[in-house]
Design a protein that fits this description.
The chain has 125 residues and is of the alpha+beta class. The chain is 30% helix and 30% strand. It has 4 helices and 4 strands; from the N terminus they run βαβαααββ.
Length: 125
């Protein structure tokens, strides 16, 4: 995948109800999402037309809908659902997704918990 261009969306914070504990589902919490899309951007650069690229505003709304949507137990599952959304655009060759859960129910002081996955078009389920 050498030489691919990238679109990055970082720090997208959305309220969701994910987690294995009942109080996480009932109370909910903020999740922060970072995405890196790997795709060719030369056509978009040449045409200066948003139709020739992934519209990151639309993508942000789609990802937010996943995070705010149906609860899952694991942020690993949430990350996969987000990767599936990104890979739905045929131009995206690979996506890196990080789901941050800074308010995870851990009875210790910590800054963040996150899960990162990388998915490719070839490895898509």
């Amino acid at each position: 995948m050498a030489g691919t261009d990238q679109i990055r969306l970082t720090g997208l914070t959305v309220f969701g109800r994910h987690g294995v504990f009942e109080h996480e589902r009932a109370d909910g919490q903020d999740f922060t999402i970072d995405l890196t899309l790997h795709l060719p951007l030369a056509d978009a650069a040449a045409s200066d037309d948003v139709r020739d690229t992934v519209h990151y505003g639309v993508l942000a709304e789609q990802v937010a809908a996943v995070v705010a949507g149906d609860p899952v137990d694991l942020i690993e599952t949430l990350a996969q659902r987000i990767a599936d959304v990104a890979l739905a655009d045929e131009r995206v060759q690979m996506v890196d997704v990080t789901v941050h859960k800074p308010h995870a129910p851990i009875p210790l002081t910590f800054a963040d918990v996150s899960v990162s996955i990388r998915r490719t078009r070839e490895g898509r389920r």
